Amino acid sequence: MTTSSSQKPGIFAIRDVRSLITETAEEGHGLKKAVGSWQLTAMGVGAIIGTGIFVVIGEGAGVAGPAVILSFVLAAVACAFSALSYAELASSIPVSGSAYTYTYATLGEIVAWIIGWDLILEYGVSVAAIAVGWGGNLNAFLDAAFGWTLPDAIAKSPEDGGVFNLPAVFIVLAITALLVRGVTESARVNLVMVAVKLVVLAFFIVVALFNFGTGNFQPFAPDGVDGVTAAAAIIFFAYIGFDAVSTGSEEARNPAKDLPRAIIGSLVICTIFYVLTALGAIGIASPQQLEDSDAPLAAALDQGAGISWAAGILALGAVVAITSVVLVIMYGQTRIFFAMCRDGLLPRRLATVNQRYGTPARLTIGLGVLIAILAALVPLSEIVKLVNIGTLFAFVLVNIGVIVLRRTRPEMPRPYRVPWSPVLPILGVLFAVYLMSDLPLDTWIRFVVWLVVGMLIYFLYGYRNSRLRREHTDGTPGWAREDEQS
């Protein structure tokens, strides 16, 4: 959006892509380019493969029967349209912030604020909820491997009958310390954890292959197409996480090539493992056995293959899997918050990069403490549903962003281009809207309340302190004025 020299940019003002890229090189406010395509791909796999495959396969099998295998494929296709759009924008606008930044460059500041505020909630609640799940899986591993567990008083939140969820606090603070230390170190640790959980899933697949039978595949689709699509809606959320790769755009060594490879590659790798795991599970256990267990893969090995000791291995795999999810999702949240602070929509001083570690250390520590408190004490059973609507909302805007930017900036370099645009981005929007329509009314109400609170903060603080608006007023970069005052 262009504005005359005498007119202050409005709430739909658009950030110029060249300006967004230029500000990443500002002294004290630019992130270190330290990760390559393999590390970024591992981040995507780390964010996607978590409790989803270890738990949700049972729910899906209960709905679709053996056709849950097709549900995994359908859910992957639904995600693929949005993944392609993320890949185009991430390679074209290699700046921290993911959907927030892409929206700022295509649909304007107010829409960018809405999606940024939405992502803050989505990532924060997601990390807290996953940390709580980490504590539960840690206890399951201790029980399976050693026959003892942590007492409920320090292993569960007040919502679940405990006093203080110590494991959740521990994992959040440990990940916070790692993220402060540096993105290179974080990526290396994540790479190791991804390797471990893929080995655990490969172990399951191989064991299932040697004990495979076809008796559980009849009837293949007891509820027909409706059952397959209903299960796909459940399984869809086991794929969420590839978008976290795009939050590392600014720290990629070669974003033009690395980001599309990582976003699409992580989705392909996870789809292959998911489909093979589902195929193996049905080959050794009935859909009913999977549905009736809280640990369906362990139940499949125990009841189908007669390997009772495998429960410990799968429990360990779940703990490692969830740890890497906490790491990547929390990393994504810090980079989105960092981008919003650097743009002035939130306090700019929080976006100062620590010169020793090359990370926004102050911001990371603050978010880590808040999330640890949330995970330890706050009831999460209801607000965690906001993660789903937040992710789908981001998918809608990213797909629209590709269409808009193709029309408004056709000359802009695009190292990766979504094929058959705008058809595929439109399909991405339709899939996301369809899944959003199935979410309960109370989730929509909570989502709207959160956005209303966000709008109040924007008009009271963000609008007046926006870097875009301040630079238009006197031509001086917002950072320069703030650095002079500090």
UniProtKB/TrEMBL annotation:
Assigned GO CC terms: membrane
A Pfam family assignment: AA_permease_2
Molecular function in Gene Ontology: amino acid transmembrane transporter activity
TM ranges: 38-57, 64-87, 99-120, 127-150, 162-180, 192-212, 224-242, 263-286, 306-332, 363-380, 386-406, 418-437, 443-461
Keyword list, A-Z: Membrane, Transmembrane, Transmembrane helix
Subcellular location: Membrane
Membrane-protein topology: Multi-pass membrane protein
Subcellular location, principal: membrane
Keyword flag Zinc: no
Top-level taxon in the UniProt lineage: Bacteria
The keyword Transmembrane belongs to this UniProt entry's keyword annotation: yes
Entry protein name: Amino acid/polyamine/organocation transporter (APC superfamily)
